[in-house]
Amino acid sequence: MAPPTPRRLDDARWRAAGGRMETLIDGIGASGAAARERAENLVREVTDLYGAALERMTDLAVAAKPELAQAFADDDLVASLLLVHGLHPHGVERRVADALAGVRPYLGSHGGDVSLLGVTDGVVRLQLLGSCKSCPSSSVTLELAVQDAVRAAAPDIEAIEVVAAEPDPESTTIPASSLMSRVRAAGGPARWIPVPQLAELADGEVGGFRVEDTSALACRVGGAVFAYRDRCPACAGSLAGARLAGPVLHCPRCAAGFDVVHAGCGVGGDGHLQPIPLLERDGVLCLAVSAPAEVA
């Protein structure tokens, strides 16, 4: 994978601008309610001013060259500003469908899929399809991936509802519905942490690192990067020094094996590794760390 371009890194910086603005407003608010209100009014006036100018500019540009509407929608930074001002050229259903298309290959790596049933009164309805080759502990990975993709593309939605597909009674695999019974509608998108150094991993290489307060390891297999918590479920020890044999990661202490391609499934009943959600955003690999899932 090529290193992120300066423009992509710049996009990632501006993606976080809203959070920085909120931090500044909170700082001003420490001086009292009146100071916070003035700061919020100032931001509102500036936003309205730039929004009005942006609307005129996009109207003129699209009138002169209609294909620019799609070009604007394809640029993450421009599209996010258009969404803020209600100027995005695509409706919410089209945006959600495009977001799911982008994350579908990632779901497929876990043996699952998702279908958009529709959007009604701001509620996005999805249906889980397929089966999963992993384990219940990977549910957080799929949940964060879908929630992040949908809410980033359509922050104007009210909720996300998931309808599980009927399980196959003949199947011996774990159904996708056990991995993501629903996508939580409460709260905003997951907090994704850029880890561009993971792009430097060579095929078959395993590397340890820390993100926030979590010890983790990552490896590259067949061009794809996978990340897991640094804990062997078989012996409860660290996986530091682990090596890959094809897609199977072997604990250096107890020799237990785990299929890193299929969400850390144990080989021969060795339990399951705990996956860490990992997606490419704005051309940079990012991780989302959450509390470990309970595995029966």
TrEMBL record:
A molecular function (GO) term: monooxygenase activity
Domain (Rieske) ranges: 192-287
Any one of the GO BP annotations: iron-sulfur cluster assembly
Keywords of the record: 2Fe-2S, Iron, Iron-sulfur, Metal-binding
Top-rank taxon: Bacteria
Family annotation (InterPro entries): FSCA_dom_sf, NIF_FeS_clus_asmbl_NifU_C, Rieske_2Fe-2S, Rieske_2Fe-2S_sf
Function comment: May be involved in the formation or repair of [Fe-S] clusters present in iron-sulfur proteins.
Name of the protein in its database record: NifU domain-containing protein
Organism ancestry: Bacteria, Bacillati, Actinomycetota, Actinomycetes, Mycobacteriales
